[in-house]
Amino acid sequence: MGNSQRGRGWMVATAMVTAAALAVLSLSVGTTVGQTAAYRAPRLPGTAHPDLSGIWQTFVTANWDVQDHGVQAGPFVERLGVWGAQPAGQGVVEGNEIPYRPEALAKKRENFENRLAVDHDNVNTVGDPEAKCYLPGVPRATYLPFPFQIIQSTEKIIIAYQFASANRTIPLGQPTTAPVDSWMGWSNGHWEGDTLVVDVRGFNGLAWFDRAGNFHSDALHVVERYTPISPYHLMYEATIEDPNVFTRPWKMSMPLYRRIEEDVRLLEFKCVDLAEEYVYGGLVAGSGSGGGAR
Amino acid sequence: MRHRWLVTAGLPVVVIAVICLASVPIAGQAPARTSWGDPDLQGMWDTRTYTPFERPVEFGTREFMTAEEAAERERLGLRRVVSDDDDDAIADELVQQDVRRYARSDAADDGRPGFRIAGAEYNAFWSADPTSPKLSLRTSQIVDPPDGQMPPLTREALMTWEAREQARSVRSQADDWEDRGLSERCITRNGLPGEMLGSGQQPLKEIVQTPGYVSIVMPYGYVRIIPVNSVNEDEPAPLGSAIRQWNGDSRGRWEGDTLVVETANFKNTVKNVVPAHGGPFGGSAHVHYYPGTGETFRLTERFTRIDPETLEYRYTVHDPSVFVRPWSTVNYFTLDPWTAEGHQDRLFEYACHEHNYGMVNAIRGARADRQWAMDEAAREAAIREKELQEKREQLTAWEESNARGR
């Protein structure tokens, strides 16, 4: 990488710090962000609604654990040193408590124990789906450490996530019901003032919330709220409801930061070929094949 | 190429459709605009085509067939449509198709690899065709070279192909995942530009625009996001050459009402993938060019809404290390009536890799009986060898005709 690239990186870092400071400022003005915020975002031309289009990213460590968490060594510290170590992070869950049913809490702990397990007869029900390059589900797609792009048109909104090329179509018209369950769920959007509200159901129950094993069932119902609070920030809020797993609905929130680098692009992270050795390698162990090493 | 269209031909319907597509943009008719002033290409597009990829020999150098010839092809079953609104009749036909498929898969093995499951791996339901795209009178998708044939592969490409066959020869059908094709591994379908054209299972693409971007929601689990320049804007800097992507890096611009998209920075799949089914570069059997070497592949696409319900789609493949010359195609996408009637408001999630139980089973199968898996691999290799021989002959013929021309 040339000096110009490094220079640009520095500028970006400065911009992020400035943006973060702005966010803190706007957040400290009032705890209730949303329609009461003074900021009025530019409209999508020809519509009465704010234009949320852009490349966005969170800066939280919720993908490790949506709740408060301390520093932990990574899983293969003897090979990787501090690469892969879990940073400490303040949780994104309101009140920090996830109201698990007792049997569900046991399942969460089991998930954590087996988070890097691969079971060839149960490839998509054992272990963290992220490690296998499976679709991340909602809301996890939002706070994976990867950017995503909102493409807003008049009748519908597309959200394309860098991780695994995951994506969602969010029609803004008459809500429809999921014909069949899926990883990313079935989204229906509408506007409440300047807030985009997305109602998501129809999940297959296979996605997780984080690497800590927090999970849900196929009864999951997520209501997301995207509210512009500055030219560079959206406030993101997700209400989680799943009577099979939780005793009551709970909520998480975090700001989304606009990626403002010149010519910034949502790059590809099609990770299947990066995950095959992990997912299928055990099937060929001892065959003398180097698998992906060839 | 095998097609699995529903039977029941309706001649009058076909003739009307033919006439529609023979039309050119209607002079003076302003194309629709988005509320921010760009040409509006949005909608759910049926991207299937019944036009042969290369021109069948009987059409010689003719670019278009007559309506009578189209009707004759229809009669011979080379293109079949549903013209029946009766859901029960369609359901009955799907059942009959399944009966025929399963009868075929139960028949004695004729020695062809995959014979016993070919055609029966999916129920006819998955290829159901409740609507039908319009019929073009074009005799081939390829319009350049003018003979309607894909140009020969270069010597370099043939050598790559041969080297990979050599590497492949000691391997069974599924010693590991890399012995299977990109599509079976859920990495890409046919790659670009092949997967811009629809199939019976995945006919649709949805275009959604926002100021500065055109996005194409692909049915294979990703969105093509194309930044589009306004006329007066500077070209955005291209991605650095170290950034290589399966679907490349696309940049768009408006030329009048036409969206022109240039894509480069494709991944070098030659280095990454042991060929399985089909040609030298992975992908499906009929897509031999995907995606070239990656290093030298440049794709140019042109999208023009020639009438409210038709999007003309042209692409040109430039890949000097794979083809002796560039080549270009024309296709027509039609606005999906099923969507227009409110039956569908989005493409459904693909989630191929997440449920790829077949890969586990293929590897286990090959380990359970490696000799069988080696035999099957040899049969697949024999099919590719035949294809490779044809490509060698094409190149020789091309070189000889060039020598005569000098």
What layout of secondary structure does this protein have?
The complex is a heterodimer of chains A (294) and B (406).
Chain A (H helix, E strand, L loop, with lengths): L2 H27 L24 E4 L19 H4 L21 H12 L26 H4 L4 E5 L3 E6 L5 E5 L14 E7 L2 E7 L19 E10 L2 E9 L8 E9 L13 H13 L10
Antiparallel strand pairs in A: 1-2, 1-9, 2-3, 3-4, 5-6, 6-7, 7-8, 8-9
Chain B lengths: L10 H11 L21 E4 L20 H9 L11 H20 L35 E3 L10 H14 L35 E7 L2 E6 L3 E8 L19 E7 L2 E7 L4 H4 L25 E10 L2 E9 L8 E9 L1 H4 L16 H12 L1 H36 L1
Parallel strand pairs in B: 5-6
Antiparallel strand pairs in B: 1-3, 1-10, 2-10, 3-4, 4-5, 6-7, 7-8, 8-9, 9-10
Helix pairs in contact in B: 1-2, 4-8, 7-8
Give a structural overview.
The complex is a heterodimer of chains A (294) and B (406). Chain A has helices spanning 3-29, 77-80, 102-113, 140-143, 272-284, and strands at 54-57, 148-152, 156-161, 167-171, 186-192, 195-201, 221-230, 233-241, 250-258. Chain A is α+β, with helices and mostly antiparallel strands and 294 residues long. Chain A has one domain (3-286). Chain A starts with a helix and ends in a 10-residue tail after the last helix. By secondary structure, chain B is an alpha+beta fold. Chain B has a domain at 34-49 and 141-405. In chain B, 27% of the residues lie in helices and 17% in strands. Chain B is built from eight helices and ten strands. Chain B has helices at residues 11-21, 67-75, 87-106, 155-168, 269-272, 337-340, 357-368, 370-405; strands at residues 43-46, 142-144, 204-210, 213-218, 222-229, 249-255, 258-264, 298-307, 310-318, 327-335. Chain B has a nine-stranded mixed β-barrel with strand order 1-3-4-5-6-7-8-9-10. In chain B, a hairpin with a 2-residue loop joins β6 and β7 (258-264). In chain B, α7 (357-368) packs across α8 (370-405). The longest helix of chain B has 36 residues, at 370-405. At the A-B interface, β2, β3, β4 and α5 of A face β3, β4, β5 and α7 of B.
